[in-house]
Every structure is written in structure tokens, then in C-alpha cells.
Amino acid sequence: MNKKLADAINTQLNYEIESAHVYLAMQGYVATLGLEGFENWLGIQYQEELAHAKKFIMFMNERGARVEIRGFENPRNDFESLLEVFEVSLKHEKGVTDRINNLMKIAHELNDYASISFLQWFVDEQVEEEDNFQKLIDKIKMVSDGGGLYHLDKDLATRVFVDPNAQQ
Ligand SMILES: [Fe+2]
Fold this sequence. Notes:
By secondary structure, this protein is mainly α. It has five helices and no strands. Helix 3 runs antiparallel to helix 4. The site of fe (ii) ion has 5 residues, from helix 1 and helix 2.
């Protein structure tokens, strides 16, 4: 694989692990609020980010590119509110989308069709990620009373991890 693209993908796979840490820290914050459903949901999000990193690692290995694991920034551990957790998450995911789009741009410049095909999965995944967080923000804003939040929390307790790498 072209070195510029391999380096950029390597940076991204490290960022996916960093994203996992971001959601793990958020899970710790919501645990202090006693919201077990949100705790579950963010724990699944953590697993998803690690699965994204794994997906990039498998691709790099398949293409004969060397994976290099680096150190990570400290995630944010404290928040003002449940709503802020998800507003920060949506902003984070929009940043990830920009990064994926940039990888796709490099792959196009290089006419690397295998990478274009591979990266399309992440382009589609980011549409879903942004939609998930936007919908949760809308729902959190909708539930003004404790009863509503109780039911939303119960809903989120049902999220289960589906390994994207096992679906192929
Ligand atoms: Fe991700």
C-alpha cells in the first residue's frame, strides 16, 4: 500500500482506540448518575470503536502495511450533564466523519480501488453513528421529567454488541 495512505490509516486506527477511551470515560460519568441503560449503551459504543480499530488493523495486515500502535490523549472524564455527554459525542463523531472522508480522498487520489471499497463501509457507518447520537440528543431533550428518562434508560439497556468483523 502507498505509504501516505498507510500512514493515514494507521493514524485513524489509533484514533479509533482513542475514541473507545472517550466512550469508556463517558460510561464512567453516566454510572455516577445511576443510569444503567446509558451505561450499557456507552459500553457497547466502546466495543464498537475497538471493533473499528480491529477492522483497520486487519485491512492493513491484508495489504502488507505495518501497524504501529501509539499513545493516546487522556479522554474527558467529567461532564455537566447527560445531555452534554451526547452533544460532545456527536461533535466527536462529526470529527471522525471528516477523518474518514479525508482517507477516502487520499485513496481516490491514488486510484487505490481496494481502499476505496474498504473505506466505503466506514463512510456508511459514520452516517449511522451521527444519526444515533443526534436521535439520542433529541430524545434526552424530549424527556423533561424523571419518568421519561427512566423509560429511555430502560430502552438503552437493550443495546447489544454486534461485531462488524464477524458479519463478513
Ligand atoms: Fe469509530
